[in-house]
Amino acid sequence: QVQLVESGGGLVQAGGSLRLSCAASGRTFSSYDMGWFRQAPGKEREFVAVSWSGGTIYYSDFVKGRFTISRDNAKNTVYLQMNSLKPEDTAVYYCAAKKEATTTYNYWGQGTQVTVSS
Predict the structure, then answer these.
(1) What is d(CA 96, CA 34) in angstroms, rounded to the nearest whole number?
(2) Other C-beta atoms within 10 Å of 111: how many?
(3) Residue 36 neighbours by CB under 8 Å, 6+ apart
(4) For the chain, which end, N or C, has fewer CB atoms within 10 Å of the first or last residue's CB respectively?
(5) What's CA 106's distance to the chain center, in Å?
(6) What torsion, rounded to 10 degrees, do the Cα atoms 55, 93, 64, 23 define?
């Protein structure tokens, strides 16, 4: 069982930056693929970025060049550095985990609100 707790959300002006953190419980964090997703009001949840256990990283097109995902396996933590934020980045951001080489994210955090003002 993995428990995930996000932090770091808040209110920021357009062009600003935030860093989200997701702390995971458990002793096998390094064997999990860790992803970030977001859900804006009235919209479906969408993929933002993933850090595979083996080191591969993927981003959605709308955050490439602005967001950076990273992980510290010694601290059981995954981060999402968000730069050049836009009002359309406003959403609840969720951290999620899945066992490596599987397709379903089985574990989700409670979410952290990010609001970008224009």
Answers:
(1) 6
(2) 18
(3) 20, 22, 48, 49, 50, 69, 78, 80, 93, 94, 95, 96
(4) N
(5) 15
(6) -30
